[in-house]
Amino acid sequence: MSRDLKFGRRSFVKLCASAVAMIGANPKLLAKPDSEIHRHHRAKLIDTEGHPITPSQLKVGENYLFHYPYIATPCFLLNLGRPTEQDTLLQTEKGGSYRWQGGVGPERSIVAFSAICAHKMSYPADEVSFINYRHQTVSFRNKSEAVIRRSQVIYCCSEKSVYDPLQGARVLGGPAPQPLAAIMLEYDERDGSLYAAGIYGGDMLELFFEKFAFRLSLEFKTSNIREKVTRTATVMPLTQYSRSQVQC
Asked: Residue 103: what are its φ and ψ, rounded to 5°?
C-alpha cells in the first residue's frame, strides 16, 4: 500500500472522528431545516402616502406595523440599530428546524416578524396592542424563572412572553412555545427599497383566522380576511395604528 494512500485513509479517519466529536458537543449540527420559506406575493413596503420605505426612514427603536401576507395578519418592522446574527438555527413547537436569514439593509439591522404572539395569539388591534418592541431595558423572567434585565426585546404583556429580535425572535421568557414567525425581507440596493416576500418558522396564521375570524371581520370591515397582500404593504408606526399600547 502506498504511503499516499495510507496518509489519505488516516486523514479521513481523523476527519470522521472530529466530525463525530463536534456533533456530540452540538447535536443541532445534525438538524435539517424542514420549515422552508412559504413564499407569497412580493410586496413593496410603502408609507401611508404611497412612497417606498427605505432603511434610513426607519427610526431605531420605533415600532412599525404592516400587514402581510394577508390583509388581516399584522407584522412588526423594526430597525434594531445594529447588525443582527445571521443564519440562526431555530425550532418550532412541533420540532421542525429552520434558519433565520438575519437582518437586511446597509447595516443588516432591519427585521420583520409576525406580530401574532406564539402563545395565545395576542396581536396589535386598532384599539390596543399588548405586544410591542421595547428598545429600552426591561425586566422579565426567563425559562428558569430568573429575573433578567435587557433591552431590545419584543414583549407580549398578555401572558409575559418575551422574544429576541436580534436572534430571529427566539423565546427568552414566558410561556410561548416557539419563536415568532419571521417575515422574509428583501432589500434592493439600487434604490433602497424593502420588500416582504414570504414567511417562515412556526406559521400560526390558519389558527389565527379560526380563533379571531369574527373580530377580524369587524375590525377590517370585510368577510374576506384571507385576502392576500399583493403589490404593496403599507407601513405605519404602531402608535398610529393602535390607540393604546400596553407596556409591562
From this structure: -75, 160
Burial of 89 (0-12, 13-18, 19+ CB in 10 A): middle
Spell out the residues 6+ positions from residue 81 whose beta carbon is closer than 8 angstroms to its own: 60, 61, 107, 109, 135
Q: How far apart are the first and last CA of the chain?
A: 72
User: 61, 41, 39, 65: which is closest to 53 by C-alpha?
Assistant: 65
Q: Express each pLDDT in 195-223 by its tens digit.
A: 999 999 998 999 999 999 999 999 999 99
Q: What angle do CA 69, 179, 96 make, to 5 degrees?
A: 90
How far apart CA 158 and CA 122 sit, in angstroms, is: 7
- Backbone torsion region of residue 96, taken as left when φ is above 0, otherwise alpha when ψ lies between -120 and 50, otherwise beta: beta
- pLDDT tens-place string over residues 61-88: 999 999 999 999 999 999 999 999 988 9
